[in-house]
Amino acid sequence: MLLSSVQAKLRKCERCGKYKRRLYSVENMMICSDCLRGMAFYEALKDGFRDPSLRGDAVIVGMNVGDATWFNPFAQAWTYPLFLWIYFKTKREDLPLYLDDLESAWRYKTPLDRVLKVYIEEGIFRIVESDGRKIIVEGDALKEMLKKYHDRQDVLDIVGAWVSGLIIARLHEEASAPDFRAVNAIVNAIADKLVDADGNIKGEPYTKIASYRCRVCGAMFATKEETRRHLMAVHRVPSDEVMMHIEEERIVIGYLLDYEYLLDVLKREGVSRERFVERMLKFRILVHEDPETPWMLEREGKRYLVVHPAWVRVLARTRAYERELLRERERVK
Ligand SMILES: [Zn+2]
Ligand SMILES: [Zn+2]
What we know:
Elements: H1 2-9, E1 11-12, E2 19-20, E3 23-26, E4 29-31, H2 33-48, H3 55-68, H4 73-91, E5 97-98, H5 99-105, H6 112-121, E6 125-130, E7 133-138, H7 140-148, H8 155-171, H9 181-194, E8 205-214, E9 220-221, H10 224-234, E10 246-258, H11 259-268, H12 273-283, E11 296-299, E12 302-307, H13 309-328, E13 331-332
Antiparallel strand pairs: 1-2, 3-4, 3-13, 5-7, 6-7, 8-9, 8-10, 10-12, 11-12
Helix pairs in contact: 2-3, 2-8, 2-13, 3-8, 3-13, 4-8, 9-11, 9-13
Bound molecules: zinc ion (2 copies).
């Protein structure tokens, strides 16, 4: 009796097909909270690439999303046009990329049309005709990104990561799209633990000393020793009083995420923890790229992952969007 009354309350999400107790009406669909978050995450990444205050963070997160799904055979179909384009760009600069070339190389179950449609909608590619042949050229968004990063050697790495991250995030939770369980787990763990519902960061920051400041005149130095010498020479401070005039300038290089909680969320999503952690460390997904920054901390018997601040800032934006989506539409109980 009890079981059936509980089941009766479950309703099917129109986006991912999972049965949930609570659905929300968004864009004329009844969707679950996971799908709502997925949509907001995609918006945050998409807008982030166009927002100077979030662009660098969005590139890092996009790169991580690409790496986290890299070996996934479904994801490969979605990123193949991108890699073929990069190949032409680097190795065969003088040759146009014909649609025929892509069609004849296509070996995936996912129809090419469906994949290209997303590239075109996102402004990554455009298809133009020349002498009766269709050519794939850069869309407006891709052109803009190439322009922004043109002065860097790793421009194609950055742009490649941007495209794959954006596409993978857009497909988030869509039926027959790549499997994003690992990305879902990361997104949910950070959104739940490190950001509040208004989109404010509530996680405990992990900091490191970036520089030292002289309290007397405000001058900045890279090392404590330089500051000490400065105080003694310029301000005539006796050596035993030097320390009280030195201030450490700290910068946030991470936020502490309850490691057991992340492992639990991964398990709930059906992701192999061992494989995830192996890949996380290999590609520096979620954690700092700088190997001198620890990826894990132990404190009072509890383990914490030191999460890259880019993820936390993108998830803060995500939760703010989530709230906007909900405010616009009435919640359906
Ligand atoms: Zn759903
Ligand atoms: Zn000074």
